[in-house]
UniProtKB/TrEMBL annotation:
Domain of life: Bacteria
Designated name of the protein: PIN domain-containing protein
InterPro entries listed in its UniProt record: PIN-like_dom_sf (IPR029060)
Organism taxonomic ancestry: Bacteria, Pseudomonadati, Pseudomonadota, Betaproteobacteria, Burkholderiales
Native source organism of the sequence: Massilia violaceinigra
């Protein structure tokens, strides 16, 4: 869903065609889709509850689910949204400023 919303932003907030959407989705065909399971649910509850009880920014449930999905399987979470929660598995690829992209972190070749 977030991807489709981004597509609409890219075309000036207008409506994209079915063909444009299908073409964009085809580019994502090789991505792994992870279904929410009990382990992810429990982790998301912990993340959300700790954010509500803590002094920092409260994490929204969708953000908690995304982070829990990464953490429950030991995967990296790449985001530019620093949600007020830190995790050793979070990666922030770059920051935006009035001068453009700054603090670009390129992936190291394997």
């Amino acid at each position: 869903m977030e991807f489709a919303i981004g597509l609409r932003r890219d075309v000036g907030g207008g409506v994209i065609t079915i063909a444009e959407f299908a073409d964009s989705m085809a580019k994502l065909a090789g991505l792994l889709v992870i279904q929410i399971n009990q382990k992810i649910t429990d982790k998301a509850i912990d993340i959300r509850a700790n954010s509500i009880l803590g002094p920092n920014k409260k994490i929204k449930l969708p953000d908690a689910i995304v982070l829990a999905t990464a953490e429950s399987d030991g995967r990296y979470m790449v985001t530019r949204d620093v949600m007020g929660y830190t995790s050793p598995l979070m990666r922030i690829p770059y920051q935006l400023s009035d001068k453009g992209i700054v603090d670009l972190k390129l992936a190291k070749p394997r």
